[in-house]
């Protein structure tokens, strides 16, 4: 399987993702199970405008990593609040929950990767 995905492709826009405020723009890197050899379901470049958030959610049967590319966010790690900045990484495993909000004045950009347990 060979894939070339151009940066010009229209991103997915999710409003109130998991009940969070605002919109999350998602640029697909790999599109789900088929392109991830059945090992995961999400590999996206996400953009949150100031004030936008990914609401609280718990993972079941998988785990999620956020790698921060740009900006600053307030991250809830199973209810413990930490600040994530460019170069930081978070991971939440099966049965755990998290959320993230852009508290800065510029876009927050992150890579989101969800892999099956």
Summarize the structure in words.
This protein is mostly beta strands. The chain has one domain (12-116): Jelly Rolls (Sandwich), CATH 2.60.120.10. Helix content is 3%, strand content 57%. The protein is built from 1 helix and 10 strands. It has one helix at residues 32-35; strands spanning 12-15, 23-30, 40-48, 53-58, 62-70, 72-77, 80-85, 89-92, 97-102, 108-116. The strands form 2 sheets. Strands 1-2-3-10-5-8 form a 6-stranded antiparallel sheet. A 4-stranded antiparallel sheet has the order 4-9-6-7, with no helix packed on it. A hairpin with a 2-residue loop joins strand 6 and strand 7. The two termini are 24 Å apart. The mean pLDDT is 96.
Task: Please tag this protein with its features.
117 residues; mainly beta; Jelly Rolls; six-stranded antiparallel β-sheet; four-stranded antiparallel β-sheet; 10 strands; globular
Q: In the CATH hierarchy, what is the architecture at level 2?
A: Sandwich
Measured between the Cα atoms of the first and last residue, the distance is 24 Å
Our Rg estimate from Cα atoms comes to 14 Å
- Element order, helices and strands? EEHEEEEEEEE
Strand order of the largest sheet: 1-2-3-10-5-8
What would the CATH topology be? Jelly Rolls
Sheet having the most strands? 6 strands, antiparallel
Number of helices, where a helix is a run of at least 4 consecutive DSSP H or I residues: 1
Strand percentage: over 45%
Structural class: mainly beta
Write down the CATH class.
Mainly Beta
Instruction: Tell me the overall shape.
Output: globular
The tally of domains stands at: 1
Question: Which whole number gives the mean pLDDT?
Answer: 96
């Amino acid at each position: 399987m060979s894939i070339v995905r151009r940066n010009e492709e229209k991103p997915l826009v999710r409003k109130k993702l998991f009940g969070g405020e605002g919109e999350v723009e998602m640029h697909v890197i790999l599109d789900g199970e088929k392109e991830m050899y059945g090992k995961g379901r999400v590999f996206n470049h996400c953009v949150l405008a100031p004030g936008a958030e990914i609401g609280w959610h718990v993972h079941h049967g998988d785990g999620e990593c956020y790698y921060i590319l740009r900006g600053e966010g307030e991250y809830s790690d199973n209810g413990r609040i930490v600040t994530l900045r460019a170069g930081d990484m978070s991971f939440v495993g099966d049965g755990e929950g998290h959320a993230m909000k852009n508290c800065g004045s510029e876009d927050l950009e992150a890579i989101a990767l969800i892999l099956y347990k």
